[in-house]
Recover the amino acids of this structure.
């Protein structure tokens, strides 16, 4: 059987950095414009009260140290230092004043064992100031900008209360790539009302953009926003 026309994350890490990388999820204590009223208060249907994060109350450096301790405890050689990706996962990690973002990110760029920094966010929350900050930090360590798309269908995006269009994602991906950032698109398979053709349309949409990684999720409905837009699901 021929090799697939893509690399797994493990293969990419070995080819790029020479070692496998492990992710440490971080909760920076930020919110989301789709929950705080900037866009909406309902949130996306698949996002729970912790923003798909840990709900951690400790600082970013403390979370890094705790994550590294867990990794070391599982390794056969406890003296072997792991190389990790610091992953700002919970909620929208560019949804704050630029000075605050710089303060939040700095510990991960100062940490010797952090090889790359992944920043999860929305395509409508990466304005010019944010892109400039990320481009500057990207000179110190690689940044993986993890942008939520979910689907190329604007009708489905509205149905799941996503709060942005696929065109907004395309614009953000192109601007990020022009700044030298690695772009990771998040997509969901199994969204209400979508069939295999819709999934293929999303794949083609992403393939036509400067996207370096794709993270594929299955659907988990955490809550139903009001008014209910999930016509194909019981409300």
């Amino acid at each position: 059987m021929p090799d697939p026309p893509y690399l797994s994350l493990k293969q990419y890490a070995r080819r790029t950095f020479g070692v496998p990388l492990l992710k440490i999820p971080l909760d920076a204590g930020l919110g989301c414009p789709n929950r705080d009223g900037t866009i909406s208060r309902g949130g996306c249907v698949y996002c729970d009260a912790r923003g798909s994060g840990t709900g951690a109350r400790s600082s970013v450096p403390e979370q890094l140290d705790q994550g590294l301790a867990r990794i070391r405890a599982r390794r056969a050689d406890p003296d072997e230092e792991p190389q990790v990706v610091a992953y700002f996962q919970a909620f929208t990690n560019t949804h704050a004043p630029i000075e605050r973002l710089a303060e939040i990110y700095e510990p991960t760029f100062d940490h010797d064992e952090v090889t790359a920094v992944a920043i999860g966010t929305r395509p409508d929350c990466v304005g010019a100031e944010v892109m400039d900050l990320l481009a500057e930090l990207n000179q110190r360590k690689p940044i993986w900008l993890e942008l939520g798309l979910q689907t190329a269908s604007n009708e489905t995006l509205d149905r799941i209360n996503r709060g942005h269009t696929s065109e907004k994602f395309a614009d953000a991906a192109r601007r990020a790539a022009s700044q030298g950032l690695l772009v990771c698109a998040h997509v969901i398979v199994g969204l209400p009302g979508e069939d295999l053709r819709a999934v293929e349309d999303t794949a083609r949409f992403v393939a036509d953009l400067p996207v370096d990684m794709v993270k594929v999720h299955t659907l988990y409905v955490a809550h139903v926003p009001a008014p209910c837009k999930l016509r194909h699901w019981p409300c």
User: Anything to note?
Assistant: The chain has one domain: 21-218. Residues 231-235 have pLDDT under 50 and may be disordered. Residues 36 and 42 are 9 Å apart (CA to CA). Strands lie at 22-26, 84-88, 114-121, 143-150, 182-189, 213-218.
